[in-house]
Amino acid sequence: NHIRTCFADNKRKKQQLGWKIRKSLLNVVNGKVPPCGMDWQNVYKVYAPFMLTKYKHWVAVMIDLVLCEIKVYDSKVSLIPDDIVKEELAPLSITLPNLLNTIDFYEEGVYANNCSRDWWCPWPIERVDVQQQSNEGDCGMFVLKYIELFSAQLPLATCTSQNMPFFRLKLAAEITRGDAYMP
Fold first, then answer.
1. Residues 6+ apart with CB under 8 A from 4
2. Which of 5, 11, 71, 170 lies at a C-alpha separation of 20 to 30 Å from 22?
3. Of 87, 101, 104, which Cα lies nearest the Cα of 20?
4. Residue 80 near residue 55, CB atoms below 8 Å
5. Helix (H) or strand (E) holding 73
6. What's the CA gap between 175 and 183, in Å, rounded?
7. Could you confirm whether domain 2-133 is CATH 3.40.50?
8. Which of 126, 130, 105, 131 is nearest to 41 (CA)?
9. Do 52 and 88 contact (CB within 8 A), yes or no?
């Protein structure tokens, strides 16, 4: 939502750089929001859920801050064609370089002169081949599991439709016990 709002605020501008970036979005990159967030200067990849609003479908995105690219983990690729996914994610692809330019992200710290492409151009978006869900209602749970497994540096092998009922029950138990982090 922060990305879409920022993109809408600036899309009339003709220049690629020099966008006005909302403080709410800067707070995400600086690790202030959400409360469990990390400053992006301290990570190489950022994982996030992304709602493809026209289709009411969730996907996981991996933002690679070194390769300057976006990978999409979609558990139901038959639902939305690639070109539509790229169109829906275009605000992210275009806004990220402007956001990072605003905070001199690639000029200081660990990323100084370390990006593998012209980071100020729209970042490429690529769908990654992952296990597909077999029903209509599991996309959100798949996204949660993708992000959880990536964050723990574990393989996605357990992310199957057969395991989703167990994962839903496990998450419900964690929330009930207060073990799940819910800001």
1. 91
2. 71
3. 101
4. yes
5. strand 69-73
6. 12
7. no
8. 105
9. yes
What is the rounded distance in angstroms from the CA atom of residue 86 to the CA atom of residue 109?
30
Q: Which of 180, 16, 35 shows the shortest CA–CA distance to 101?
A: 16
**Tokens standing for 43?**
């990570």
DSSP element (H, E) containing 74? none
For every residue of 86-127, DSSP letters joined together read HHHHHHHHHHHHHHHHHTTTTTSGGGTT--SS-TTSPPPEEE
pLDDT in tens, 97-108: 888 888 877 776
- DSSP 8-state class, residue 131: P
Q: Which two tokens stand for residue 174?
A: 């964690």
DSSP 15: S
Amino acid at 102: T
